[in-house]
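so my prof wants the structure for this chain in the tokens format not the other one, which i didnt know existed until like an hour ago. anyway here's the sequence
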Amino acid sequence: MNPVERAIRRVDATQRRYTPTAFVFGVIKKYGDDNGGVLVSNLAYSAFVSMFPLLLVLVTILGLIASVDPSFKADALNAVAGQVPLIGQTLTRNVHQLKRASVIGLIVGVLSLIWGSAGLAQSGLFTMGQVWNLPGPARPGYVQRLGRAGLFLCLLGGGVIVTTLLASLNTYGHNAFVFVVLAEMLAAAVNVGMYIGAFRVLTPKGVPVRKLVPGAITGGILWTVLQVLGTYLVHHYLHSDSVYGVFATVLGLIAWIYLAVEITVYSAEINVVLARHLWPRAIVQPPLTEADRASMAMQALQNQRRPEQHIEVTFDDRQPGHDQSASTPRTPDEIAPPADVRVPEPPADVRVPEPPADLRVPEPRGVPDPPADSVGSVDGRAQ
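here's what i got, hopefully its the right format
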């Protein structure tokens, strides 16, 4: 063993010994097993494409109701712009209402919104399916995906309304410190609720809500911290009048969406690692830990496409005397929610060995036949 490998193995043994470090590395390892970078890029692209139809229909609807309450339109646009501190105001100023024919514009905007939100929901469903390693038969069909896309759209609309109400809290207190802290705490609570709703819509129904809460809390808090840090950087270090103009706007939007999506995927991985106890993981292999075997088995079992297809995963690296662990699945049914991982039963053709010959109970012997000369005698005397 070379010195570099020896040092890495020492670090590996240390991180596996302590639960916090083992759990953090387990989440990072699971993110890599699921090709998290590819999932984040796909979801970020869908969010980027969907944002402009979302802003279009939002501005159009707000323009139709502005005659009743113009201040609500300004508050709503400011609330939406506040979600992206660096370029939010630039986006909302450059997306205008379709004024020539508001009804037609609204119809076009709603159709674009349905198309964009459906694409975003489809990418979210695919991402959660990969994170939870769902086999093909356990994933929702086309009609179910459309229904979840509609629920996701309603969730976004409710988030805009709640965010607008929270944005007015700062102005009510004239940006007083107490109101600012209260608004941020309420914003974190709302973000946690949004994450719980998004995970519930995008994650299979077989997964209980309680298993989605840890990742939702993490995602909501990190998203709030990201917004606070972004606002602080904009106000103190960054300037909006960049010489790059529209390029800076697009690049800033992509970077912001990518960070938000990466937080979301990592939060989902936290839920899976906790639910299936996928830690500790080994940095250097072999040997494999039981969590390594479980994750590798899930990667193989999720490739099932049809119920008629049967897949089984086994390992031959265990030491003699160590049986299959209950946490390591062998068939797709053991990872499709709400199925629990079970200890596999022995094959039907296994027979119980017979005990040794010297331990067998001797069979009782029959009573010997009487002698021939005693036939018909009484008391042993011949008649």
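also thought this was worth mentioning. Residues 341-355, 357-361, 374-383 have pLDDT under 50 and may be disordered.
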